[in-house]
Each structure stands twice: as C-alpha cells, then as structure tokens.
Amino acid sequence: IEAKAASLIGEVWKARAVRQLRRYQESRGAPELFDYNLACVGISGAAAAFGSFGAPEKAYAPWRLTPEAAADANQRYGIEPKGQAELLIGMLEPTVLLDIMRDFVVFEPENGRLVKKLPRYQQYRAVTGAMERMLGENDAEERGGVIWHTQGSGKSLTMLWLATKLRREPRLDNPTIVIVTDRTQLDRQISDTFRRCGFP
C-alpha cells in the first residue's frame, strides 16, 4: 500500500502512488518483494485504488460495495464507507482477498509480456452472485439469470472466472460449461481469452 498526502488535488495522488509502486517493482526498488504480491494499493485521504503488479495507472480502479454491504458497514462502524473504507471492508476483507487469490488471478500474454489480471469489483460481484444463486436455490428455475456487461468491460474474463469457480466447486462435480454467442468475433474473443489465460 502506497499512501499519499490527503491534500493532493484530483487524481494527482493516484498518478504519484502508482509511479512510486512501479519504482518499488523495478530494479532500483525491491522487486523481489513483489514475487508473491497479489495486489498493489494506492491511498490518499479517503480515496483508494488497486491494481496488479506492473499495472499502468489507467488499470488501477476503486472497489465499491453493494448497497447492502455499505448499509451493514454503516451500521457496524457508524460511518458511510467511501473509497478507502470500501476497499478495506470489501476487497481487503480476508475471505474476499483469499477468494480473489484462489479463483480470480489470471496471467494473460499481451504485447510480448505476461500480464497479471485481477477482477474489478463488478466482475467479482457478478461471479460470486452467480455462484450463490446457482448453489443456493433449490428450484432449478431460480438458478438462472443475466449478467449485463457493456462493450470492453471484461465479459470474457468474467466468464473465465465464473467457469473456474464452477469447475472448482465440488458440489457441482466438474460440470460441463457451454458458452453460446451470437457473433463469430465474440466466439473467437472468448475462446482466445480462455486459451491465452491457460484454460483451454
């Protein structure tokens, strides 16, 4: 975690935090400390963002809580969680952090290097919500649902993480997973993402 002064205006804190984290990761810092690193975090006052090892500033993102989790945190701690508090209560909560470490870390080759990818909060929420729905309802008709993504929001990775969790769930006994697309380009994109991340 790289902490920056709360007095920095706008997104300056994030640029400085990421730049410092990148320096730590390079040879003039302490790169061996990052061999087993799961995530890097930048904070400033109430603001916070996280990214993976080697991630550029644009890849650092906040973590958001569901309205229910925010209300629960408000009741437990007496404050409305924002920014840093959402990251601490949400992503850095031990069970969530261990879940991310187990099922949500992938390495994908991009431009000649291997890039570590972590879920954004909406991807994590979609996958965990889908799993809860599939495993929690007795009525088969109640197990389905829709996860809506905009273009470029990471739907291929969301599908990959959901497939990973489905395959690792012992109660499902290694299920067959069928992905249906309506475009050849989308079919190629999803297949390529699974393959490149080591999940043919």
Kindly describe this structure.
The protein has 200 residues and is an alpha+beta fold. Strands 1-2-3 form a three-stranded mixed β-sheet. It has a two-stranded antiparallel sheet with strand order 4-5. The radius of gyration is 18 Å and the shape is globular.
Q: What's the gist of this structure?
A:
This protein is α+β, with helices and mostly antiparallel strands and 200 residues long. Helix content is 42%, strand content 12%. It is built from seven helices and five strands.
Q: How would you state the average pLDDT, rounded?
A: 90
The coarse overall form would be globular
* Order of strands in the sheet with most strands: 1-2-3
Q: Strand percentage, roughly?
A: 5-15%
Low-confidence stretches: none
End-to-end CA span: 34 Å
Q: Work out the number of β strands.
A: 5
Helices and strands, in order, run as EHEEHHHEEHHH
Radius of gyration: 18 Å
DSSP summary: helix tally: 7
- Broad structural category: alpha+beta
Q: Summarize the biggest pleated sheet.
A: 3 strands, mixed
What is the helical fraction, as a range of percent? 40-55%
Produce the secondary structure layout.
Elements: E1 2-4, H1 12-25, E2 40-44, E3 47-51, H2 67-77, H3 84-89, H4 94-103, E4 106-110, E5 113-117, H5 121-136, H6 155-168, H7 184-196
Parallel strand pairs: 1-2
Antiparallel strand pairs: 2-3, 4-5
Helix pairs in contact: 5-6, 6-7
